[in-house]
Design a protein that fits this description.
Distance between the termini: 55 Å
Order of helices and strands: HHHHEHHEEHEEHEE
Largest sheet: 5 strands, mixed
Strand order of the largest sheet: 2-4-5-7-6
Shape: elongated
Helix content: 55-70%
CATH superfamily of the largest domain: Histidine kinase-like ATPase, C-terminal domain
CATH topology of the largest domain: Heat Shock Protein 90
Oligomer: single chain
Structural class: alpha+beta
CATH class of the largest domain: Alpha Beta
CATH architecture of the largest domain: 2-Layer Sandwich
Number of helices: 8
Number of strands: 7
Length: 329
């Protein structure tokens, strides 16, 4: 159309817009492949659809120089921005990993103190109870307070266990490539149960989870990686259930001829239509508590296993993740 309209102002702008869009949305190798084909087909169509095709060189040369310059400098700009973005992402990963490693030392100290309290505190509590029963001059401590003290080491253990799990999840989620992990045959039911047992669930959180796996199936997976996939899904679901103070989690399976599926559904807050297409993008997070790496890690692991993970949601009603596993032949 640029040739057919004799390089008019309008079609010069249209062509320029087309080139800019190509620069933004197409990678450099595809652009170098598609651009000559597109331009060549345009010239051929002009030749066949025009009685007397005319190519004004005095106009073509400046246009070629201008468009070539736009393509070169535009692509350099896009590549530069991509490199800067990758450097920023790598820096964030390094900082997160450093913080996670540093947190292990104080948490280990707290865990060690909890072990010591668990051994010695019951003796002190028992001594206090015996003494105050026999001697009224001893400062009286109510039995509820003594019970609270006795439960404190267990609570500390639960808190440190939960913190260690979060740290392990963060470090695992920051892995670049799970391809080095060894895959072995596992039962999906065993994998889910092991993840639920290993996660630091409170008594109330356990009552929110309903496991209904009537159709068990075998998968080829790395149990450690898959456990962290379930950890990420549990963490997100429990957070949004607590945020809206309603909902539960249901886990069930469905066997098929080509693929088997595991469904992980919570009836908590749900995800908005605007956020839903981006939930698996790395560093995309719609909340202050998230880092934007958990679901991206889940996607990476599931695709490494030859499957996939998808998400369906209605805001205010539910969020459902579907983990797709290839059927083992």
């Amino acid at each position: 159309m640029l040739l057919k309209n004799n390089f008019s102002y309008e079609w010069s702008l249209n062509s320029l817009t087309g080139f800019v869009l190509c620069i933004i949305f197409i990678d450099i190798s595809s652009l170098l492949f598609l651009l000559p084909i597109g331009v060549g087909l345009g010239i051929l169509f002009y030749d066949f659809s025009t009685d007397q095709p005319f190519y004004p060189l005095d106009r073509i040369q400046p246009v070629l120089i201008t468009y070539s310059s736009i393509i070169i400098f535009g692509k350099l700009f896009v590549i530069r921005n991509s490199v800067v973005q990758k450097i920023k992402q790598q820096s964030l990963k390094m900082q997160a990993a450093a913080i996670a490693h540093e947190m292990r030392t104080p948490l280990a100290a707290i865990s060690h103190l909890a072990d010591g309290l668990k051994i010695n505190l019951p003796i002190l509590i028992n001594t206090q109870q015996t003494t105050q029963d026999k001697d009224e001059s001893v400062t009286y401590v109510h039995k509820n307070q003594l019970q609270y003290l006795e439960d404190t080491p267990t609570e500390l253990e639960a808190v440190t266990k939960s913190a260690f799990i979060v740290i392990d999840m963060l470090l695992m989620n920051l892995r670049e490539n799970p391809s080095e992990a060894v895959l072995e045959k596992h039962s999906i039911l065993d994998c889910v149960k092991n993840a639920l047992d290993a996660y630091a669930l409170t008594k109330r959180e356990k009552t929110l989870i309903s496991l209904d796996i009537a159709d068990d199936f075998e998968i080829m997976a790395n149990s450690h990686l898959l456990k962290h996939v379930f950890f990420n899904l549990l963490k997100n679901s429990l957070h949004y259930i607590k945020a809206v103070r309603k909902g539960k989690i249901v886990i069930w399976t469905e066997k098929g001829e080509q693929v088997n599926k595991l469904y992980f559904k919570d009836t908590g807050k749900g995800i908005s239509k605007e956020s839903l297409p981006y939930v698996f993008n790395q560093f995309y997070s719609r909340t202050d508590h998230g880092t934007g790496v958990g679901l991206a890690f889940c996607k990476m692991v599931m695709q490494h296993l030859g499957g996939d993970i998808t998400c369906d949601s209605i805001e205010g009603e539910f969020t459902q993740f579907t983990l797709i596993f290839p059927v083992l032949k």
